[in-house]
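dumping these here so i dont lose them again. two proteins, back to back, each one seq then structure tokens. dont judge the mess
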Amino acid sequence: MHPEATRRLGHALQAISSIQRYTANAPLQESLSDDLTRSAVERQLGIVQEALRVALLEEPCLRQSWPDVDALHAGCARMRDWEQEVALADLVGFVGGDLKLWQGRLVEGLRLQQGEGARLEQQIAENLGRVGYE
């Protein structure tokens, strides 16, 4: 995976974790009813949205691994659309459902990426050792 895509997916994961911290002290509906918390959550959704946009540009094959990643990107945009005045229930459903699901997917995807990178480095080292480079 392209390093910038990996970095951006890490940003998305950090933003999702921030959203969880903002909403951890009270039931989700109550947390998101507060204007300051809702504004902070919407800012973090913007970070997720932008991180996904760049990651998908850098690594289009992410769509093969996660065919519904575009739906997450669109969902973040929809939840941040101030002109549409997103209903609280929709935001609660998105944060409590889609984002939690995607947090797990991003963690697993980045973990697999790190594992593949380590295996590749090991193979390179072994091949270099065979030809006399160490």
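---- next one ----
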Amino acid sequence: MRRLRATLRAVAESILAAAIGLVVAGFILKAWGYSPISAYIALFEASFRDLYGIAGALANATPLILTALTFAVAARAGLFNIGAEGQMYFGALAAVAASLFRLPPGLHLLVALAFAGAAGVLWSLVPSVLRATRGVSEVISTIMFNWIGRYLAFWLVANVLVDPYRAEKTITVLPGSRFPTLVPGTDLSYAIFLAVAVALLVYFLLWHTVTGYEMRAAGANPDAARYGGVRSAGVIVLVFLLGGITAGLAGATQSLGRPPTYAVYSGLPQISNLGFDGIGVAMIGRNHPLGIIFAAVFYGGLQSGARVMQLFAGIPLEMVRVVQGVIVLALALPELLRIFRILRRRRVELGGER
């Protein structure tokens, strides 16, 4: 009963936050001479009115579910892993590299996904070890690795993954390792089922296993968790391991599941900022795997509708971004305040140790 009340309260808070965000964004639009009603009609009709709109929202949500899980798992353990961006790039490239093997179609995709998850883990290894053994802030180290990963990935694309027969093109993912398209004529592929399945597995891990309990205990009260025998270093490494897997898989969904070209260069730009967008999605979903699924679909719908709102409501792109930002900020605010409380508590604990 207590869990049900907490869930209903969280849902009510999210609905109220969304309403506040829409009202505030509406006032901003009105102040600049635009019609909020026309803007919102264009925004939501484009995203959820028909099959193609819903497919676009789900296609956008697919990688966001996975990158949001990267942040959410760490947040549940009291950590702030914002390295999904860099881990995604290497997951995408590893999936493409594995796609060049000559393997049976079903096995081929599984091998490519395994390579993607392993690459994400490898790129998260240094920040996790630094945090576990030296106490180096994971925020600083993951930000650094994001930029290193981004530029190294584009260097590899430009110099290693080029088409040997056409220098202006990159190699194309072989058909056997691609995610089949779910709705013809859209970007939605069967990768959406992978993302949802991973979210459900993470939910089971966090709330129905001893390991998940230890991770949540370490985030809720680190001192009590240590007193109870929870090894903080082990929790840190495990959190980054899981985050690396989900981020790497997110990269694979873009390089193996974005028709029509399935070329590396056309897939990589799709990855840009998805790691950071995942942080917002995680906070909207209250860092809960099930909440993240719905938050990602909502956020994906905002992304799809934003283009139509600009086209049909005549609103400049900059103003569209403002509207998106206000709505997302309002939805994420409750979880953001909780994170600030955790940071303040950590600062007090560090001050006490000194």
